[in-house]
Specification:
This protein is α+β, with helices and mostly antiparallel strands. The protein has 13 helices and twelve strands. The strands form four sheets. A five-stranded antiparallel beta sheet has the order 1-2-3-5-4. Strands 6-8-9 form a three-stranded antiparallel beta sheet. A two-stranded antiparallel sheet has the order 7-10. Strand 4 and strand 5 form a beta hairpin. Helix 4 runs antiparallel to helix 6. The chain is globular, with a radius of gyration of 21 Å.
Amino acid sequence: MVNYEANISAYETISTLGQCFEGMAVVNLAKHKISGTMVAIKRFNMDRIKHEAHLVEREIILTKQLQHPNIITYFVAFVHLHEVCVVSPLMAFGSCRDLLNTHFNEGLPEHAIVLILRDLLDALDYIHKKGIIHRSVRAGHILISASGKACLTGLRYACPIVLNGKWQKQIHSFPMSTARNLNWLSPELLEQNLQGYNQKSDIYSVGMVICELANGAEPYAGVSTTLMLTEKVRGCVPQLLDCTTVPTDENNEVHGDCDISNNVVNRRFSEDLHELATLCLQKEAVIRPTASQLLTHPIFKLTKKGIFLPDLLKPAMPLSNRVAVNTDEVANLDVVQQFADLELYSCEWDF
């Protein structure tokens, strides 16, 4: 068991992986000097965050309280000058959003989506039973390790269901700092009516993630907030884009002005994946399945057949520990160039 020190001098910065928290935090690739282990260090600039500092505190405390293989681990957190630094495992494939941006613009293969969803639902089942609503389930908050394990992050927007020792049937609070999450949020959470919302709002977000992973972009991307809200309240159900849902003419050309490629028109997702998305995206929360119920869906039987996520993510390559471990010269320009070639600077790493 590695003991990670709460001291910045115990880590050797290798490169910058990316930014998060609206650019107010930077994520560095670093090497723990004593063990030689590669880690990610998220450094929050507290001078810039100021009024949202409570979100950083909430995320660190909550994440450290949770122990699950599909929720990101925070090894240690400490203060260095004007920064709060959080050390976590290196997730070699970055976020699902990064994979979509760099290698899978039109969506991931179905088997990859199913493997990611299984881990995501395991994580949500765990936190829901702990009395927590995530409220920020999206591809940018799902990180993939070198071994293909998906880990849920983004807990700064989470809220408790248990208040004063009592389990609340409904919650009415709205996460104020959530502009980037609106497209994924459920109709009942956005409506803010007297009925409130519960854990089932996260299940709706899972449906949005299924569409995001399958189509390459979340539903309502580029649409105004007002129109997005109107469509959700009307009960509009987003769909996976394939030959069964995209209308074409007799020449197999897409109707209208939709910017959809032939690859999308010619592909076909399984009925099970379509059904899973539909189950999650039902407008009425009461009839949506729970995370544990979704895990019994027939589509997850294929995850027992020896299919490994890293094989399905090619040509995307993980950030191998070997690249950085094989050199003692952190400033070596050749190593920095290797990182640049791996497109590290495009990583979202929003966890």
